[in-house]
Structure formats: C-alpha cells, structure tokens
Amino acid sequence: MITVILVSHGGMAKGMVESTTMLIGEQPCLEYVTFEPGDGPEDLTEKVETRLTAALEKGEAIVMTDIPNGTPFNCVSRLMEHHHFYHLTGMNLPMVIDVVSQVSEEAKAAALCIAAVEPAREAIIDVNAWMKELGILE
User: Fold this and answer.
1) How far is CA 11 from CA 1, 7, 112, 116, 119, in A?
2) Smallest Cα–Cα separation from 56: which of 86, 78, 32?
3) Where exactly are the structural domains of the chain?
4) Which residues, 6+ apart, have CB-to-CB distance to 49 below 8 Å?
5) For residue range 87-118, what is the model confidence (pLDDT) as tens digits?
6) Which CATH topology does 2-133 take?
C-alpha cells in the first residue's frame, strides 16, 4: 500500500485533502500534516515522523511538501536520512489528484512520482497569454 502525506505551512495540506475529496471522493491513502503558527521545526518533524512511520509499516510513502527550502521541506528532507520514502515538493492540486488517483495495490511509489512531475508543471498556465493566443484578449 502507498500512503501519500501532504505537509504544508498552515492549512494548505488540509485544504488539498478536502479539495481532492470533493473532486474524486474519499481517498484512504491520503493524509496531511500542517506546520502551525507556534510550532517549531522539531514539532513538525515529530508530527511528520509519526505519520510517516505508521505509513511505512503498511508499505511505501510519498510525502509532498508545499515549497522548496521551507520548514516543511527541510524537516521532511532530514527524515530522508533515516527513512526510505519519496519526496516531491511544489505540490499543487493537479499533482495530488494525479498521484492519489493512481494509487493501487500494484502501483509503485517511485513510478508515481516520476509520472507526476511533468503533468504538474504543465498544469501551470498563464491564462492571459493563453487567451491572447486564442484571440480572446488583445
């Protein structure tokens, strides 16, 4: 089994789980951890490690963090020295939905991560430029 854990500053990770559920239904493989005001890096690391350890007891884990070099990213990256899991950063909703919707008994976390990166990049669109290209805007 693959568990996907979203980690973010504030409520972003929780919101991503809620939005994913709204769009594709309940996903038992999807969890979140938030870095709240008043938390220190040690607090976040402890919360993530608790969740991660439980996930790894059941199988593989993919952890997605909100931004490169932020506290969630740094805490998760340090855990990579002690646990084997996959870490993607710069998470966005299309990336989360893409990965979670492909989780199955046969799926491999490494393959899901590789397949998720390019579509996540392509999901970022400059709508003004796109509409100009279509002739809708001048």
Assistant:
1) 26, 9, 25, 23, 24
2) 86
3) 2-133
4) 79, 83
5) 999 999 999 999 999 999 999 999 999 999 98
6) Rossmann fold (3.40.50)
